[in-house]
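Quick one, probably user error.
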């Protein structure tokens, strides 16, 4: 009789050591986060998941977009970040009591942000909680996860439902025509940057007189 264990693939000792090292590093990183009074809102506190097509903005870009959103929303304004967690994190990091914000995002790791996190799947653009009232946000910042017309069109439904008027869209330069068609937004001069360089040229689009030109 053959030994049942024979057909279980064994990891080589080299792979095993590499794995252990990886887990150890991960634990140390997590440990550092807690011991240093880690800022849960800093960009990179949740690491990018490329399978979800996630690419975080550079610190400068996130700051610039957060400032623009605050200006556009005005005092006491409401800002919705749709699939744009690094802008949400920047807004929270800047603090200030005179605005409110929420994050609509597919990645449930961001649920650490409590009630301001709203699970969002662009395939169901209007499947939103009842307390998110139509046209209740002074500005909506959106960064659709995929460069496809379908993704933009569905995200646009969400944006139009949420915004009182102002829209700040971040997406590829190739989407310029579709962005105009679905949201009536025009490309700004400001060039958003990511913490890792993307292959596709990325741009910002607005439908109001912004500070991004």
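Nope, works fine. Designed sequence:
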């Amino acid at each position: 009789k053959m030994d049942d264990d024979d057909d279980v693939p064994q990891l080589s000792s080299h792979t095993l050591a590499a794995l252990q090292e990886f887990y150890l590093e991960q634990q140390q990183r997590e440990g550092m986060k807690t011991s240093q009074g880690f800022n849960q809102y800093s960009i990179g506190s949740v690491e990018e998941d490329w399978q979800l097509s996630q690419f975080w903005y550079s610190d400068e870009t996130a700051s610039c977009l957060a400032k623009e959103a605050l200006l556009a929303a005005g005092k006491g304004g409401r800002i919705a970040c749709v699939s744009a967690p690094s802008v949400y994190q920047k807004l929270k990091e800047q603090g200030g009591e005179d605005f409110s914000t929420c994050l609509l995002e597919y990645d449930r790791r961001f649920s650490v942000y409590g009630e301001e996190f709203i699970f969002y799947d662009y395939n169901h653009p209007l499947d939103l909680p009842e307390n998110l009232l139509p046209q209740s946000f002074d500005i909506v910042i959106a960064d659709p996860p995929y460069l496809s017309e379908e993704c933009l069109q569905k995200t646009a439904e969400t944006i139009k439902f949420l915004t009182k008027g102002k829209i700040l869209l971040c997406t590829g330069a190739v989407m310029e025509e579709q962005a105009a068609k679905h949201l009536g937004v025009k490309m700004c001069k400001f060039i958003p940057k990511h913490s890792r360089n993307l292959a596709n040229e990325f741009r910002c689009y607005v439908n109001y007189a912004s500070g991004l030109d």
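Residues 32-38 have pLDDT under 50 and may be disordered.
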